[in-house]
Amino acid sequence: MTASGKNRRLTIMRVFWLLYAAALVTATHIPIPDDAIVLVTAYDKLLHGTAFFLLAVFTSIAFLKRESPLTSWVSLCGALLTYAILDEYLQNFVERTPDVADWLCDALGIILGTFVTRLGRRWMFTGMQPARVEQL
């Protein structure tokens, strides 16, 4: 792929990331309508984990190179964990209730998303294959 093709793909990914991040901020800071509370409450933790898993994947792809050192990945994870704490705290001001359990689900999603992306990039770009289970 040419340099201009890589730059274009990276720009598209960063625009996609920006749109996803804006949608996530909006979704976590608007009051939940009364008729949706039961549905959202039933899947609240799953929604938190999934949303932040995707945020971690998209952020990793948009801003880290495959050869980025481990410290860059850890820093990205730390920044997203800090954002998740801030996100929960700011819900105090928009008729939502912050919850430590929500943040823990956010954190699990962030850690898994970052790990899966890093591992996936290693497999895709370095030819590293997952360990095979030997047959008996």
UniProtKB/TrEMBL annotation:
The chain crosses the membrane at residues 46-63, 70-86, 101-120. Signal peptide: none annotated. Keywords: Membrane, Transmembrane, Transmembrane helix. It holds the Pfam family VanZ. Residues 43-119 form the VanZ-like domain. It comes from the Bacteria. InterPro entries: VanZ-like. This is VanZ like family protein. It comes from Planctomicrobium piriforme.
